[in-house]
Design a protein that fits this description.
The chain has one domain: Barwin-like endoglucanases (Beta Barrel), CATH 2.40.40.20. Helices cover about 10% and strands about 25% of the residues. The protein has a 4-stranded mixed sheet with strand order 1-3-2-6. The chain has a two-stranded antiparallel sheet with strand order 4-5. A hairpin with a 2-residue loop joins strand 4 and strand 5. The longest helix has 7 residues.
């Protein structure tokens, strides 16, 4: 699950961000471009992976985009592999269960 596993490192050596074709077009991003993910908690870079797997959603009449970034990446190897998604995650938990809300949060995506 981390970049300590040689075959995973070979398969995907850098932090990446999956996004829909619609979001990529809206932001002027091409597959393989370097992008910046940013929110109030932090900033990191990733390689854009433009894919059909991600689709925009319409919520209360507004188009909303979802992006995906790998969870177990960052700070280890290779040196230019990118930062950890933990730079962006909130440190809050569900009030009833105490489970961290660390896998769903908002970011802005821009071409680097």
């Amino acid at each position: 699950m981390t970049r300590w596993t040689p075959w995973l490192l070979e398969t995907e050596p850098q932090m990446f961000c999956e996004m829909s074709f619609d979001l990529a077009k809206e932001r002027g991003i091409q597959n393989g471009d370097k992008v910046i993910l940013k929110n109030k908690r932090g900033t990191l870079w990733a390689i854009a992976m433009v894919t059909n797997r991600m689709k925009p959603m319409t919520i209360l009449g507004k188009v909303t985009h979802q992006v995906a970034i790998p969870w177990h990446y960052g700070w280890v190897w290779p040196a230019e592999g990118g930062d950890s998604a933990n730079l962006l995650t909130p440190s809050v938990g569900d009030a009833n269960t105490g489970i961290p809300e660390s896998k769903a949060f908002m970011v802005n995506v821009a071409k680097a």
